[in-house]
Amino acid sequence: MRSRLLLVAGLLAAAPLAAQQRPFTPDDALRVASINVLDVSPDGRWIAASSATARDRQNTDHFRFGDPTYVAPRTAAFLLIDAESGDTREILPGRVQVTGSEWSPDGRHLAFLLHGDGTSLHFFDREDGEVEKVDVDGEIASNSSLDWRPDGSGLLLELRAEGWAENARTEFVALSEGPIVVQDGGDPFLDWERVRNLGGLTVPAHVELDGATRALLPEGEYAGFSQSEDGRWLAVVGEVPLKTVYEGNGGSEWRLLRLDLESGDTTQVVEPSTDRPRPSWAPDGIHYAYADSGHVHVRSILEEEGRNLTAPFAGTVSESDTTKLRYGAVRWREDGEAILVDSQRGWHLLDLESGEMELVYARDEEHRERFDESPFGWSPDGRYLYATKSSTEEWARGVMRIDLEGNSVDASLSPMLSRSFILTEDGEHLIFRMSDGDHPDELHVAAADERTIDLEGATALTDLNPWLDEVALTRSELVEYLDIDGKTQYGILYYPVGYEEGTRYPLVAEIYEDFFSNGFNSNMNLLASQGWFGFRPSVEFEEGFPGEAWMKGVTAGINTLIDRGLVDGDRLGVHGTSYGGYAANLLVTQTDRFAAAVNISGKVNIISFLGDSEKITTRNYRAAESGQDRIGATLWEQPQKYIEHSAIMYADRIDTPLLLLSGEGDWNVPATNQREMYYALRRLGKEVVWVNYMKAGHGAGRAGSEADFKDHWSRMFDWYHTHFEKAVEDRPVTDGAG
Length: 738
Hints:
Elements: H1 2-13, E1 22-23, H2 26-31, E2 33-40, E3 46-53, E4 76-82, E5 88-103, E6 109-116, E7 118-125, E8 131-134, E9 139-140, E10 146-148, E11 154-160, H3 164-177, H4 191-198, E12 201-208, E13 213-215, E14 220-227, E15 233-241, E16 252-260, E17 266-273, E18 280-281, E19 287-292, E20 295-300, E21 307-308, E22 328-332, E23 338-343, E24 346-351, E25 357-362, H5 365-370, E26 371-378, E27 384-391, E28 397-403, E29 408-414, E30 417-423, E31 429-435, E32 442-447, E33 459-460, E34 471-472, E35 476-482, E36 488-494, E37 505-510, H6 522-529, E38 533-537, H7 548-563, E39 567-577, H8 579-587, E40 596-600, H9 606-609, H10 619-625, H11 639-644, E41 658-663, H12 671-683, E42 688-693, H13 706-729
Parallel strand pairs: 1-34, 37-38, 37-39, 39-40, 40-41, 41-42
Antiparallel strand pairs: 2-3, 3-4, 4-5, 5-6, 6-7, 7-8, 9-11, 10-11, 11-12, 12-13, 12-14, 14-15, 15-16, 16-17, 18-19, 19-20, 20-21, 22-23, 23-24, 24-25, 26-27, 27-28, 28-29, 30-31, 31-32, 32-33, 35-36, 36-38
Helix pairs in contact: 3-4
């Protein structure tokens, strides 16, 4: 171990800047703080935010997953940030668990739900800084939404029915502990789905500022609310689960209800159907847009029928492209008199009064392949449309503003990583997170109404991790390469701390699916601190043959780095978590070029896995047949494909030392699935170690206690160091030529 520490110290000393800093450690990974905006006051000045660390997510009781009464710990600092001065203070002291934060219409009070001994409603008064608990008549649901009434006279939230907690807990315990558990295939629901559905049962209620409470609807499952501007009408999407289904999402009956908050009368706006309503609500809270058969319709909850607005514009994409035009509603304009509509041609502005539609931003197929764009706000006068924009070929990302009167586009794009944009209601400022791509995000504010938007000149409102100046961090690079099929792929390369040009370093690939954007990454910093390259390569899947993807893409990406003279091809490691762990395990059945591999909470037998994670009900069947696993068929239709994509079936081909890390409380990939690989490799005389964290969950030690977290990384470091050293020792001796 001493020789390894000296090696790392030597690498750190190689770079002048790194010589003044220390390596990034697992303690640091637990300490790094991130920022999340909860709500912005109507005048754009006051920001309610939370700042959390990985330590705030620890000590979850994973064995209570599926218990509707359990609220997993998700604490954070609860902050008030002045967008003008950047001054920051705590709304509540210490680490707290808050959800549903929303400013009152006048911007004075912040309502929020505090989780601890139950869920409670609180008001923060911005003027005097006081926090007041509201005595609500009833138990607030831990998953409740929170919405102010338009006039600020009260709020809408969701309660639990009397006796709900006792019933839900009893059902969970009975299914978890028995003493006898009987599951009958004739029942409409899988039992764990039936128990999970209990968590969705709530009672929508109106709460006045003094806590007086009035139930609005009977107990049920509700999936969305919209209030009218005048406060009279409430539109509610309701769900009635019918049965467990394995294909699609047809197991529920959906409805759209209209509630008159003055009289209490409830009317069914949309007849019950297995098609889920997906309304895009207008600012008035009464009209909504929806897509149907490739057209955009608009309807009022006070009307019997909707109107097809895009039927007059039916046609083909172009004279050369005879594909039928399909329209979708993207975003209402702030005055509610126009809708931004998307088609294969681009973004159109559809005027509701005249029925006219104008193409305001062209986005043909080639453009869509080159850029990812998404609208997020309008200027109050409707002249400017704001959207995020990023290239799919390079690190050029940021924001653009479309001038609908001047027919011009102003874009602020750079290698900086900017995201989570909010346009203030007055249209004067953009609030967003930004970093250089290698440091944690900080909250920034930029002028939105200047002649040119300048994100890089934005003002930083936070400085959450000043201590990182003492730490040597990795730097990232976007890598382009061709996979074995000759298709362009991208990966993110993270340089070892103290990197010296001309020296070849070990590389550890962390694999999953696609990687493109960078951003602060604790995992990669931990690898870089050991003197290794970290690499996150992308792969391309073919349905029915997904197991080939990692062999075609990962190895090709690594070859590119070896050819550049960066990487020592004898000292290669590979690991992944969950689907990535599955990928790493499958990959080493196809190649022995890695010196070591780690499977973190990844399945090894897709056949036994189908029904192995009972608490997530049908997810594993869906994932295999039509989801992430991409088998494209059932086990009984294509049994050979399930065999081909189960690493356990080819354990005899594994020559790579394999470390298996699992969590006993993993509700997603049970530790028993990895145990199969341990038993198989041990039986075959292969090098394998299995570490099962008895109180951890999905993610192994990283999803356990602080001690588990540190042990997890210590074992991974040691595993790679040991086998990288052995790879050097086992190199053939040459005469020194070449």
